[in-house]
Structure formats: C-alpha cells, structure tokens
Amino acid sequence: MGMASLTTVRSNCCQCTTRCGVQVELRNGQPVRIMGDPNHPLTRGFLCPRGRSGIEYRNHPDRLTTPLRRVGARGEGKWAPITWDEALDEIAEEIVRVRDRDGPEAISYLFGTFHGTDQASVPG
C-alpha cells in the first residue's frame, strides 16, 4: 500500500465573520488538521476553538448536506430533501412575491455565523 499524500493549503475560516487565515492539512484530498496561518496579515496564526473544530463540524453525522423543504405543519419537524436549484428557485420566487406585494423596502438582508462569504466582512 502506498504512502498517503499530505499537502497543506491556505484558506479562510468561515465559522464567523472574522474570516481568520487558516492552513488546512489534507491527506489524499481530505482535511485532517486545521491550524491558524501565521502568514495571515490580520490573524497572524490565531485560530479560535470554533475554527480549529472545522473538521468535526464538516464530518458530523447530523450535518445537513442538502436543502430541506417542510412537508408537514410548522413545528411538526417533517422535512424532505430537495435540490439546490429547487431551494434557490423557491427562495427567489418568495422574495419576488414579497417585493411585488409589499414593495422593495419589505426585503432585508441579515446574516450571522453562517458558512459563506459576505463582502461586508472583508477588510479594506
């Protein structure tokens, strides 16, 4: 059996809006360790426990990996998986419906510690 390939890539943590610099060790393309990036100009190697636990979060058996649509009454906890295209189409349709009914001021944007990017959190 051959030796496992180990590489390190630089990235940013997305566990909060700070976007700390990270170095991720990959073995055969799969993350095995996350460390702070000492060459990052803002965080200089710091990485909080939330950032260091990114692999546990990624591999957690209860992690959602597909959008879900409610199929029962609100509060029943009944959901069915749908595709990303279906989810994005439904969201877009609802935004347009609210805008057309109540005006553009009825739409707002809010974010928290989600796992994506937001230009408002990028320095400079």
Give your account of this protein's structure.
This protein has 2 domains: 1-63, N-terminal domain of TfIIb (Single Sheet), CATH 2.20.25; 64-111, no CATH class. A 3-stranded antiparallel β-sheet has the order 1-2-3, with no helix packed on it. It is α+β, with helices and mostly antiparallel strands and 124 residues long. The chain has 3 helices and 5 strands. A hairpin with an 8-residue loop joins strand 4 and strand 5. It is 23% helix and 22% strand.
Number of structural units classed as domains = 2
Q: How big a fraction of the residues is strand?
A: 15-25%
SSE ordering: EEEHHEEH
Average pLDDT for all residues: 86
Largest sheet: 3 strands, antiparallel
Poorly predicted runs are 118-124
Helix/sheet category:
alpha+beta
- What is the CA–CA distance across the termini? 49 Å
Assign the CATH class of the largest domain.
Answer: Mainly Beta
Q: Which homologous superfamily in CATH is the superfamily of the largest domain?
A: ADC-like domains
Q: Can you list the strand order of the major beta sheet?
A: 1-2-3
Radius of gyration over C-alpha positions, nearest whole angstrom: 19 Å
Question: Helix coverage percent of residues?
Answer: 10-25%
The total strand number stands at: 5
The dominant shape is extended
